Amino acid sequence: MNPTSPSSDLRGTTLINHWQAGVPVTTGRVLTPLLAFLMALAAIGLVLAGIRVVSPLGPFSAMNSVYAWGIWKTFNVMTLTALGSGPLALGIAAWVFNRQKLHVVMRTALVSGFLFYATGLIALGFDVGRPWNFYSAAMPWRWNSESAMLEISICMPLYCAVFLSFEILPLFLERLYYTGSAKSQAFLRHISPRIRKAYPFVIIGAYVIPLMHQSSLGGLLLLAGDKVNPLWQSPAMPWLYLIAAALCGFSFTTLLLLIVCLRYGRKLDQDVLTELANLLSGLCFFFLLVRAVDLFWRGQLHRAFALDMMSLLFLLESSLILIPAVALRFRRLRETPRVLLNLSVLACLGGMLYRFIPTSIAYKPMRSTSYFPSAPELVMAVGYISMGIVAFVFAINYFAVLPGEASAWDHAYRPFGWRRRNVAPKTLSLTPVTALERGA
Amino acid sequence: MSLLTVALTRRQAFKAMFGIGSTAISVAMPREAMASEEHPAHPVAPPDAVAMLYDSTLCTGCKACMPACNEANGLAADTLLSGGIWDMPTGLNSQTKNIIELYEDPKSDEFAFVKKQCMHCLDPACVTGCPFGSLAKVEFGAVTWNSSLCIGCRYCEVACPFEVPQFQWESWNPKIVKCEFCYDQRLKEDLQPACTAACPTGAVIFGKRDALLDQAKGRIAAAPDQYYENRVYGEHEAGGTQVLYLSAVSFQKIGLPKLGNTSLGHYATKVTSVIYKWLGGPLLMAGVLGFAIRRNWNRHELERLQHEKETGFPDQL
């Protein structure tokens, strides 16, 4: 990444450039009461998931053969992986479109994205009815190449287990470098140039594969045909799902950065946040444009303003995206952290609604059954989400995830809140140590 | 020095060639795809396609087909509603592959029976969606389910426009329950399906699809205004099905959905089959992205070394 030099405080706000490197959180307790509560929720969710393994799906969920996909698929996977598309959206902006400023927040996006995908995949693992047959994934001759479901069931685990894991590997190696023995440090010095060699090639896969499966998530619903309301059922759905993923990726990363910086009392960085806000606004406009052209093209524009339930949902979803799109055009608004936070919440909600509605609310099969998630289903879904939050809090406390001032990087004294094993804590000199150290 | 530059250029040239090659392939793809389309909009029935013709006006609602089906498929009777006395399912469910339903208009005395089972579409959406080919269209056009390939994702239930596949929610080893045209049980042994064999009134009959379609049209021609819309349901619906319906009352009233004539498989895969043919689209994308990433990476590396020299802070990936 390319650390920026602090810029002058133009408008007398607190927004000056403070993000130069990933710096772990070293202040305050890790285990707060809220975190303990979330851990308890995650534990309850996991216990229920464990019971689900030895029990059929029926007693657990309210799903039925008409509404065959419950909240685990429609929310934990279809909706939340859109929020977890930060690594895709920011990565492409940073590495393909050369938005250098975004490199400093990539780690935040990567860790949150990894956790969304990981928890989504766990949810999926407990949702499928015959998981023992999944070994077919390793046998390409069994693949039904025209199935969007195949693309998702192969690419999602592959992306999470190989590409995202590779991208967050430097976090672990860096920590090992600062806390490990001399031998492990020598090994890391040996291995990190190799990781750098492979990195530009691996990230090609890390962008192509989510482009494929995020669009396939929309492609899934094409086969559902008339069951999905015509406001959403469209041949453009794969593209819209992809754009919504990018939109959610940008807005959620902005939101997350603002929230954690508030929580841990970190200073913000105007340049990076402005970059994110500009890209978010552009994507919101692009999404609405594609949506409008698609509706017009299919001649369904009248439904959008029929003011029935579906039309109101559509208008809600569109206005949730339109408000940040317009508001972020104004410098005054975009440079006020509180407004930016609120607008990114709106954009997140809009994108999530677009991803959630076609699979659930606008999904109306002809048989008159209904679906509302049962209590264990909801508890498990909440449990997976809390698991992700808990893991994120641990990650930012023990790894250099969150962006901060490079000078806050206190290598010698308190690396990651842990004392270095073989260096006496007396050596407080900063630059001589770091000059030789190269993070992976 | 010149060797070094050549090596770099060569890599870039390789990327560019890769990109151009993939573009050419993906441009050439559509024509190729059209020539031998896997999911035509209006599929043609293969010559060995069998079918069922169900004439709602002939059905007396005796339900003889239901126990016959249960017996042939080894299904237990659904006695939940009848207090353990007789088979009384409320619809297709995890132990009912075939059911006779009654439609009754509460205002007039209009009524009709309807037989529900898998429609054995010519281009089934469930088969298109099934990730590992557990559901497959086999000999005679029967759509069958293979327990050893199914992962239980239930995409078939989302995809099926007739809402036929049923998942065993109460089972530890859940199966997808759907009519398989008695393929394993009877069709293979040159026997007709259990339901058509059991039908006493000839309301549901078995035969080649072409012959049955002719027969159905013959019945319509013989009694011009007896049948709803004077047409056969299933001739064109969702690209055509191998179960054909004749009815005196509206098809939608007896629970057959109003569907377009294009097969869902065609609608869902007409774009993706071009993009994903021989992975052309993803490879092209990889080429384009790789080119840009490589260029930006090299710039980034130069800046990184410069920065490390200046500040002493290591770069983080």
Describe this structure in words.
The complex is a heterodimer of chains A (440) and B (317). Chain A is mainly alpha-helical. Chain A has one domain (67-436). Chain A is built from 15 helices and 2 strands. By secondary structure, chain B is an alpha+beta fold. Helix content of chain B is 36%, strand content 12%. Chain B contains 9 helices and 9 strands. Chain B has a 3-stranded mixed β-sheet. The interface between A and B is large, with 86 and 74 residues.
Summarize, please:
Chain A has 15 helices and two strands.
**Percent of sequence in beta strands of chain B:** 5-15%
Mean pLDDT of chain B: 88
pLDDT averaged residue by residue of chain A: 88
Q: Count all strands of chain B and give the number.
A: 9
Domains of chain B (count): 2
Most extensive interface, residues per chain? A-B, 86 and 74 residues
Helix content of chain A: 55-70%
Low-confidence stretches of chain B: 1-6, 28-35
The major sheet of chain A is characterized as: 2 strands, antiparallel
Shape of chain B: elongated
**Relative helix content of chain B:** 25-40%
**Architecture (CATH level 2) name of the largest domain in chain B:** 2-Layer Sandwich
Q: Evaluate the radius of gyration of chain B.
A: 28 Å
**Widest beta sheet: strand line-up of chain A:** 1-2
Oligomer: heterodimer
Helix and strand run of chain A = EHHHHHHHHHHHHHHEH
Overall geometric form of chain A: globular
Number of beta-strand segments of chain A? 2
Head-to-tail CA distance between termini of chain A: 12 Å
- H and E string of chain B: HEHEEHEEHEEHEHEHHH
Which descriptors would you attach to this protein?
heterodimer, A: mainly alpha, two-stranded antiparallel ribbon, 15 helices, globular, B: 317 residues, alpha+beta, Alpha-Beta Plaits, 3-stranded mixed β-sheet, 9 helices, 9 strands, 36% helix, 12% strand
